[in-house]
Design brief:
The chain contains no helices and 11 strands. It is an all-beta fold.
């Protein structure tokens, strides 16, 4: 069983920054993909950024140049540095780990005020 524990959400003004963290524990495969997804009210969950064990990253077009995903394999932790935040970034952000099976965190609220 894998557990994902997120932290770092909150309320920030437009243009501000936040850093999300997600620590994974349990039976984690040596090769996996960790990432962040978000879901705004009334919208479908969407991919924000992903990073594989080797470090290759992907980003949604809407966050390129503003968000940076990174990971510490020794700590099984993934981070999302969010800069130049916009009101449209407001959503519940979910940590995800894929290692044969899909695992999700409980979600953390990010609210960006205008």
């Amino acid at each position: 069983q894998v557990q994902l524990v997120e932290s770092g959400g909150g309320l920030v003004q437009s243009g501000g920054s936040l850093r999300l963290s997600c620590a994974a524990s349990g039976s984690i495969g040596s090769i996996n993909v960790m990432g962040w997804y978000r879901q705004a009210p009334g919208k479908q969950r969407e991919m924000v950024a992903t990073i594989i064990t080797g470090g290759r990253t992907t980003y949604a077009d809407s966050v390129k140049g503003r968000f940076t995903i990174s990971r510490d394999n020794g700590k099984n932790t993934v981070y999302l540095q969010m800069n130049s935040l916009k009101p449209e970034d407001t959503a519940v952000y979910y940590c995800n780990l894929r290692s044969g099976v899909n695992y999700w965190g409980q979600g953390t609220q990010v609210t960006v005020s205008s």
